Inverse folding.
C-alpha cells in the first residue's frame, strides 16, 4: 500500500512551506509505511545507516554522504532494518517560485529534472560537510522563524539547491540540459496530467497549438528521444509503480492506463522492459 503524505503547512503556527527534519525523527512513519508518495519536494541527506532506498525504479544503497532527491508524485521505498540517520529537507514549489516569479525554477534543477540519471548524489567529505552546514543554518533559521521574515530561509534554500545542482551536474554532465522553452514545459505538464487519458503525439500538439512534427523536433532536441517515446516512457513508469506498489491486476492496470486490451498493454510493456508485467512484479517483489 502506498501512503500519501502532504506538507504540514502550519507546523510552526503560521504557514511555512519549508522544513528541515532529522531523519531519525521519522522512524515511526518509515516503519508504519515504508512505501510513500509525497506531494512536495524532498532532499534526504544520509549521515549514517545501511539498506536500500528506492525512488520509483531506482534502488540505491544507503550510506553516509549520499543525497537522495524526490519530486512530488514519485514513489519511495525504504528497505532497512533500522531507520538511517540524516537530514530531510522538504519544501513546496511555491515557497521559492512565488518569490522569484519563476514557476519553473525548481523543475529545472538537474536532480529534479531527471531522464536517465539516478536520483542520488554521492558527495565528497568536504562537499558533504558544506551541505550539512547549510542544512544546520536552515534549521536554526526555522527554529527562530517569524512569519514576516521568510527571505533568509528562501536565500538559504536557494543557496543549498544551487550548490547541489552544481555538484550533480559535475557528476552527471548529461543532466545539464539547456533551459526548456515554454512548449517543452507545457508538454511535460500536460503529459503528467493527461497520461492515462491520451498518449498520442497529436493530442498534445493540438493542446499546444503546434504541429506534431514541430513538437517532436523540440522534444528530440531537449530529451534526445521522440515525443512518442517520451510519452511511452512515462506510461511504462506509471505501470511499474502500479505493478510494484499496488495489488491491482494486470487487467486493472491496463484498463487504468486506457489500453484497448490487456494483451496490447502486456506486449507494449514487454517490448519496453524485456519482461512481462507479471515478470516485473515478481522481480520487484521477490
Amino acid at each position: 500500500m502506498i501512503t500519501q503524505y502532504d506538507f504540514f503547512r502550519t507546523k510552526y503556527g503560521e504557514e511555512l512551506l519549508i522544513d528541515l527534519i532529522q531523519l531519525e525523527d521519522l522512524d515511526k512513519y518509515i516503519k508504519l509505511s515504508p512505501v510513500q508518495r509525497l506531494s512536495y519536494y524532498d532532499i534526504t541527506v544520509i549521515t549514517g545507516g545501511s539498506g536500500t532506498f528506492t525512488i520509483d525504479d531506482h534502488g540505491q544503497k544507503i550510506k553516509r554522504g549520499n543525497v537522495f532527491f524526490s519530486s512530488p508524485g514519485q514513489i519511495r521505498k525504504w528497505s532497512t532494518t533500522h531507520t538511517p540517520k540524516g537530514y530531510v529537507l522538504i519544501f513546496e514549489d511555491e515557497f521559492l517560485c512565488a518569490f522569484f516569479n519563476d514557476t519553473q525554477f525548481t523543475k529545472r534543477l538537474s536532480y529534479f529534472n531527471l531522464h536517465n540519471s539516478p536520483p542520488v548524489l554521492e558527495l565528497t567529505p568536504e562537499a558533504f560537510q558544506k551541505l550539512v552546514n547549510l542544512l544546520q543554518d536552515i534549521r536554526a533559521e526555522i527554529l527562530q522563524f517569524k512569519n514576516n521574515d521568510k527571505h533568509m530561509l528562501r536565500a538559504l534554500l536557494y543557496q543549498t539547491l544551487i550548490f547541489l545542482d552544481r555538484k550533480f551536474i559535475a557528476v552527471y554532465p548529461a543532466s545539464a540540459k539547456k533551459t526548456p522553452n515554454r512548449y517543452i514545459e507545457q508538454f511535460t505538464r500536460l503529459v503528467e496530467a493527461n497520461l492515462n487519458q491520451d498518449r498520442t503525439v497529436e493530442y498534445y500538439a493540438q493542446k499546444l497549438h503546434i504541429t506534431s512534427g514541430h513538437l517532436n523536433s523540440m522534444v528530440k532536441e531537449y530529451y534526445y528521444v521522440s515525443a512518442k517515446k517520451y510519452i511511452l516512457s512515462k506510461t511504462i513508469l506509471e505501470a511499474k509503480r502500479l505493478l510494484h506498489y499496488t495489488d491491482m491486476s494486470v487487467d486493472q492496470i491496463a484498463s487504468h492506463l486506457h489500453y484497448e486490451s490487456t494483451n496490447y498493454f502486456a506486449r507494449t510493456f514487454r517490448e519496453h522492459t524485456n519482461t512481462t508485467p507479471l515478470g516485473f512484479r515478481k522481480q520487484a517483489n521477490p
Observations:
- Residues 210 and 244 are 37 Å apart (CA to CA).
